[in-house]
Request: fold
Amino acid sequence: MTSDELVVLVDEEGHAIGTARKSSVHGQETPLHLAFSSYVFDHDGRVLLTRRAAHKVTWPGVLTNSCCGHPLPGEPLDRAVTRRLSYELGLPAAPADLMLPAFAYRAVMGNGVVEHELCPVYRVTVDALAVPNPDEVGEALWLPWKEFVDGVLSHALAVSPWCAEQVPLLMELGPDPLAWTPADESGLPPAARVSHGAG
Reply:
């Protein structure tokens, strides 16, 4: 996504209230906007982690989940997940399963820059090698899910603030990420309930 592309602004109940250029929504007065997080797994249950590129505005160089991003106006979130996984990690299209439909967070960097997102979380299972795009990703690595979770929960592994909040919620779905039952899309914020026929 370029900084000229639009993100969807939302109110506290998750209704779309407008759009703004991506370049304008990550600062010290960041408005609540629609986003997503995704966790990519291989068929052995390992999770793909990424280190955010060093030139990122928010949390540069920080280890995090596989891929995050923003849907374009009118774009279904699962399509946005697939689009960003292709762009950031060179991964082929695969089903994106909704796991945490109502996740939201607000986090502030040391320099005052804020992330403030309604950020549903998706699981994607792939059988392919990741090819990181250096514009977005500094490093990509696979870890066994339990090793990753144990590291996050013990604070031995430093990750992005949203990832740190998501991991305990994902653990509530069960110890095996490949066996998680997808959530109902009716739990998505209203702004994210976009028909696949739209856009």
Q: What stands out?
A: The longest strand covers residues 137-144.
